[in-house]
Amino acid sequence: MDHKTFNRKLKWLMSLRFFFALLLLGSTVAYQIGNHYYALEQPIVLLYGLSGAIVFLSAVYGLLLGRVNRHRLAFIYVQIGIDSVCISLIIFVTGGYSSLFSFLYLVVVIYASVFVFKRGALWVAAFCCLQFALLLILELHGTIDPFGYGETMVNSPLTLVQVLQKCAILTAACFSVAFLSGYLADQERKSKAELAAMEAHLGRVQNLAQIGEMAAGLAHEIKNPLASLSGAIQILKGEVENDKDNMRLMHIVLRETDRLSSLVNNFLTFARPSAAQARCVNLGEALTEIVILFEKDHSVGQRIRVDLATIADAFVEVDPLQLRQVVWNLLLNGAESIENEGSIKISVSRRKNERIVVEIADDGCGMDEKTLKSIFNPFFTTKPNGTGLGLSIVYRILETYDCRLDVKSKPGAGSIFSLHFKPTDPTARPL
């Protein structure tokens, strides 16, 4: 959960807590007037004090909200813990075992799931159940004597069986609510993350499409005179073979011309990648072949270990050469981000949305948020001799196959590139 969303939800919680305190205060006043209890009895004083304490704590939480950026999880757990203790006090004042307000524990569990999700909500449910059990056990043994402020539900002495039944009912209710609300909160978080990734993907596709149209025309305009220039220099080269200085200059011109030609070809690939040779490909076999070739590449040497984990029947429709180009580029980027020795892990999995996901994770230097936002932009590079077209071409190639590319990275923690392929039926067409 991002900082802005967390603060917004926390402000809503503080507002609801404040109104609950006012409701508790108003109901106490109404009960006192309705039953003509004008004397300040001990339970009434305790409820007034509890209402005031909740209002005071709400004000304190509001003042601390802007100062707990690094410890916001601990901050919300403190609030949840204090709220559950306040609920226990309300139950004590209103009759303990006979109280009708034990359902308020469920409210705490529900809002806890919004902030700490399913696992945290289960811990909160356990904490609430322990408090309630302790309260009833102390009441059973006569250690405490709840005020019974209101109508009592039982007139006979409290028994162990009644305590166990009540604790079992509350435990089942709390854990059921924690599981369901936590599950829904987790699903909401995943859906929002997926939606954000899709929005980012759509934005990149639109930007790259606009740049690609311009790039295609520009590349063609450069390519034609560049070819004429290269041909003319080749002719002139034959006439100055005996002049060492001119030959040296000619070699420089030809080398740079070839480099420009390669750059223009990459630019054309980025602008209009072709998917004409697409066919059904077994990802496991294709990735195994790519990994074997990559580990033998002289630029990698023996310093990078590549671990591959695939699944059976992972078939996608893609051009094998373009798949090799995409995976090779990502492997090479991962290897270049590792300073000395390291490892790259490739894993293939099938997600609930039926997409086949290939994750390429390295343990390199990682990237900061500013770099992450720009790595797919043409000509953006962090390498001294890079052109900045590698990842742009990868993205454009994958786009032609309705495949999404996501990346997660943190400085010093490596990067994870995720390729979301649309699966295909291998029996639909020949391999």
Describe the model.
The structure is a single chain. This protein has 431 residues and is α+β, with helices and mostly antiparallel strands. The protein has 10 helices and 7 strands. It has 3 domains: 3-200, no CATH class; 205-271; 279-421, Heat Shock Protein 90 (2-Layer Sandwich). The strands form 2 sheets. A 5-stranded mixed sheet has the order 2-4-5-7-6. The chain has a two-stranded antiparallel sheet with strand order 1-3. Strand 4 and strand 5 form a beta hairpin. Mean pLDDT is 80; it is low at 149-154.
Q: In summary, what is this structure?
A:
This protein has helices spanning 3-34, 42-64, 72-93, 104-140, 160-239, 244-271, 283-295, 320-337, 369-372, 390-399; strands at residues 279-282, 304-309, 315-318, 342-350, 356-362, 404-409, 415-421. The protein has 431 residues and is α+β, with helices and mostly antiparallel strands.
Order of secondary-structure elements: HHHHHHEHEEHEEHHEE
Give a count of the beta strands, DSSP E runs of length 2 or more: 7
Let me know the average pLDDT: 80
Structural class: alpha+beta
Low-pLDDT residue intervals, each spanning 5 or more residues: 149-154
Write the layout of secondary structure elements.
Blueprint: H1 3-34, H2 42-64, H3 72-93, H4 104-140, H5 160-239, H6 244-271, E1 279-282, H7 283-295, E2 304-309, E3 315-318, H8 320-337, E4 342-350, E5 356-362, H9 369-372, H10 390-399, E6 404-409, E7 415-421
Parallel strand pairs: 2-4
Antiparallel strand pairs: 1-3, 4-5, 5-7, 6-7
Helix pairs in contact: 1-2, 2-3, 3-4, 4-5, 5-6, 6-10, 7-8, 8-10
